[in-house]
Amino acid sequence: MSESPRADLVDLASRIEAHADALAERTLVRMYENPFWEARFGERGRRFAAQDQHHHIRHLVIALRIGGPETMGGYARWLQVVLTSRGMCSRHLADNFAGLAEAISTGIDGPEPALAYLRAAEAALRYDDGPARAVQEAIPVLAEEAVSALATRHPEWLGRWGEASYARCRDDVVYHLSYLADSLALERPDLFTSYVRWIAGFLSGLGVPRLHLAETFDALRRAGDRRLPAEHRVKIPEGLTAGREAIREEGL
Q: Are residues 196 and 235 in the same domain?
């Protein structure tokens, strides 16, 4: 017979549930500090995002009450498939779990078990193997090397806003790679090229020429040749090449 959930976990679940509306709103506000969300999904997307916050909280409450962090892991993996096929990436979902953790840590006493469950949900977003996992594991080093190469080759590109510009560019590259990993995992190259076309137009509207994005993918390919396992040095560059071609089709 399995042990009953600890009383402190049940109590924490009840307190989170009692503050669900405030926690969901705080997480949503943090989420929409990123202009990506409003630009890509509009007001309709905001309504769905608000519903999603409540779903995350509901599953967290259930997981705490049954004493099973694996429940959050299973929920994260299911949601990953659903949302990455609808224009999001795994990094966005991880950001959402982190935002909820931040809201709970500042609004709920004794939050650590809930934060651990949310960390388990984030960890579950890592793919088991193959090129998708290889990309995920290499994201930090690939992003850093690519942006460093761009800064060296085109210091004027990143010079307008100083260090903040460098950090923003690196963060953008992390999202690009997360989309690439998801498209590889789902064997849906169209998901990546669709995102690339959209982000090229979005960045262009912010004054970032499409050429910058095209050269970013070139820099990522070179970094991948150095850093990725040999068995994945064909599949992953193919995805980046398709992304670059999508930019060319849109017009540099």
A: yes
